Amino acid sequence: MYLYSVEPPDYENYDYLSEWKGREIQNLAERKLIIKLAGHPKRTLELGGGFGRITSVLERISEETYMVDYSTRNLAEAKKRLTRTNLVQCNFFNLPFSSRFFDLIVMIRVMHHIQNPTLVYNEICRVGQKGATVVVSVPYSPLSKIREMKEIEEIEHENGHHRVFAGPIERYLDQRFKLEGIFGTGLFDNRIGRKFNKMSFLSEIDLLTARLWKLKNNLFLKLKLAE
Fold first, then answer.
1. Please, are residues 11 and 113 in contact by the beta-carbon 8 Å criterion?
2. DSSP state at residue 178
3. Sheet holding 43-47, edge to edge
4. Can you give the pLDDT at residue 2?
5. What burial letters (b/e) apply to 175-189, b meaning 16+ CB within 10 Å?
6. Average pLDDT per run of 10 along the chain, which is 227 residues long?
7. DSSP-assigned letters across all residues of 99-120
8. How are beta strands 64-69 and 162-166 bridged, if at all?
9. What is the pLDDT of residue 39?
10. Which pLDDT value is given to residue 98?
11. In this structure, are residues 94 and 6 in contact, taking their beta carbons and an 8 Å threshold?
12. Cross-strand partners of 88
């Protein structure tokens, strides 16, 4: 069975920055939403922070911030952008942190590379404090077969190093967490949004309609680790 811990996506030979060109509306909407969901954390952990897109917001609102990524290339890019974040290179299944260390754990646009979310949740539950806020984003589309899936399935396979998985929301939930809300972004993450990319105010519309998640393509699950 393919496991991210054994064979993570190949971001050493992929320019992840290029994926966000022309998507400023989506970028702003996600950064604004994470601020709303994060609260006022003391110690924050972001799993799979890439080049620091979301982390740059988190380090402004958290007293202490850590970002984990497996890619040397991503970490080098993140180092250019971040000023207060501790960068750590490792996988997500054996985190080098003490138990009950974080009160906020964030994982944005990473879960679609994980075939079995429980493997990640095990470590999140270990390093997260009781009552910690956990924000995880998962793929969705009102027009795709994801709505009809019963289990998490592979929906894309690129050269064996960039596999994409998706499934019903229920499969991304865990009895160790309380679901506090589902929010969505992506109203303008399409051809129309890219055409009007410089109209940054559209991100506010996406944000104001975040609870209409069934219309969006990227869902944010706000979870609370059981007391």
1. no
2. E
3. 85-89, 64-69, 43-47, 102-107, 128-139, 218-225, 177-185
4. 39
5. eebeeeebbbbbbbb
6. 53 88 96 97 97 97 97 96 96 93 97 91 97 96 78 78 85 96 96 92 97 94 94
7. TT-EEEEEE-S-GGG-S-HHHH
8. unpaired
9. 93
10. 97
11. no
12. 68
Residue found by looking up tokens 């399935």 in the block = 153
The answer to whether 51 and 85 are in contact (CB under 8 A) is no
Contact, 123 vs 88, CB < 8 A?
no
Type and span of the H or E element at 194: helix 191-195
From the list 115, 112, 120, the residue with the least C-alpha distance to 45 is 120
- Residue 225 CB burial class (10 angstroms; 0-12, 13-18, ≥19): buried
Strand ranges (E), 63-172: 64-69, 85-89, 102-107, 128-139, 153-158, 162-166
Amino acid of residue 216: K
Q: Rounded to whole angstroms, how far apart are CA atoms 1 and 16?
A: 26
Query: Which 3 state secondary structure label does DSSP give 215?
Result: helix
CB 220 within 8 A of CB 185: yes
Q: For tokens 């590379």, name the residue.
A: 113
Domains and CATH numbers, the chain: 16-225 (3.40.50.150)
pTM of the complete model beyond 0.90: yes
Secondary structure letter of residue 227 according to DSSP: -
Under 8 Å CB-to-CB from 165, ≥6 apart: which residues? 112, 113, 114, 115, 152, 153, 154, 155
